[in-house]
Amino acid sequence: MIYNQWYAVLDAREVKKNRLIGVTRFSEKLVFWRNDKNDICCTADKCCHRGASLSCGTIVNGHAACPFHGFEYDKTGKVTYIPAAGKNAVPGEQYRVNSYKAREKYGFIWVWYGAEDAALPEIPFFTDLKDGFTCGQIAETWPVHYTRAIENQLDVVHLPFVHRTTIGRGNKKLVNGPVVKWNRTLMTFYVDNVNDEGQKPLRPDEIPDYEKLFSLQLQMPNIWQNRISPHLRIMAAFAPVDEEHTHIYLRFYQNFVRIPVLRSVVNTAGNIMDRIILHQDRRVVITQLPKKSGYLTDEHLVQGDLPIIEFRKKRNELGIR
Rounded to whole angstroms, how far apart are CA atoms 24 and 245? Predict the structure, then answer.
């Protein structure tokens, strides 16, 4: 994991009012809930008393109450009430669990994976998706590390092979570039796949007017978008579950249909095609070994893998824990 980053980890609709939800993220069992102010709370899903799962409990006065002995926890992970000790007793500082800072924004729940005393930066998201778009969503878990799932979306070489019946039709196997540009932690890469007529692929610096090409973006640490047109985008968040699993939220964004009923039909139809394409990817990606990629591997990459190379370099630069 890259430290000191905001990670999109849940769809905001999954954290419902007056209900605890337990999930595994960052290889840790966590519990999420909304308190009386509708703030998102996130702590370890394990009572400090006897180890019971807090997510099996209830919400009492905005706190998570353990189902075993009623210990109540606030958003900082501190026990505020121990029923057996009496309502006037003040629990000692030892009665607490780890907590994470969590926020709701852009339809996701974000968790700060980093130092507790760090100055929190703005939650990262794609500027052009912040307003004016609606979306439909599908979600599923893949048995791969989140780096493999992300790298699949940076792979411009695989299209005519994995997606030959969908987005890879046309047999454009030769890859010019691609051109990769960074704006701090935002990668934009420009794609120029063409038919192979015996020519050599152009190097990135040989491609004129590359900004006019089809482009995709990766916002570190774990969100991606395919900029199909000004009115249509495919966006994904790759929530790290553990070292061998990733929960993927895939969204179909559009702004060309605004009538509610038709909008829902269009978004659902977009999700159907997205699922077909996603499963074409899944069939291959889950076979990759090792399940987790890294900066230095025994893979022999090619020029067309430049977005993947740049992603690995940036992860290494930002610091992996």
Answer: 10
Euclidean distance between CA atoms 38 and 16, whole angstroms? 10
Dihedral sign, Cα of residue 192, residue 274, residue 242, residue 41: positive
**Tens place of pLDDT per residue across the chain (321 aa):** 999 999 999 999 999 999 999 999 999 999 999 999 999 999 999 999 999 999 999 999 999 999 999 999 999 999 999 999 999 999 999 999 999 999 999 999 999 999 988 899 999 999 999 999 999 999 999 999 999 999 999 999 999 999 999 999 999 999 999 999 999 999 999 999 999 999 999 999 999 999 999 999 999 999 999 999 999 999 999 999 999 999 999 999 999 998 989 999 999 999 999 999 999 999 999 999 999 998 888 899 999 999 999 999 999 999 988
DSSP string for residues in 284-311: HHTT-SSSS--SS-S----GGGHHHHHH
Residue 21: other Cβ atoms inside 10 A: 15
* C-beta of residue 250 within 8 angstroms of C-beta of residue 153: no
> In this structure, what token pair is assigned to residue 258?
């605004």
- The pair of structure tokens assigned to 193 is 């796949």
Residue 157: C-alpha distances to residues 60, 78, 118, 285 (Å): 53, 50, 39, 14
User: How deeply is 304 buried, as exposed, middle or buried, from its count of CB atoms within 10 A (0-12, 13-18, 19+)?
Assistant: buried
State if pTM tops 0.85.
yes
Strands across the sheet containing 134-142: 134-142, 245-254, 232-242, 223-229, 214-219, 186-194, 174-183
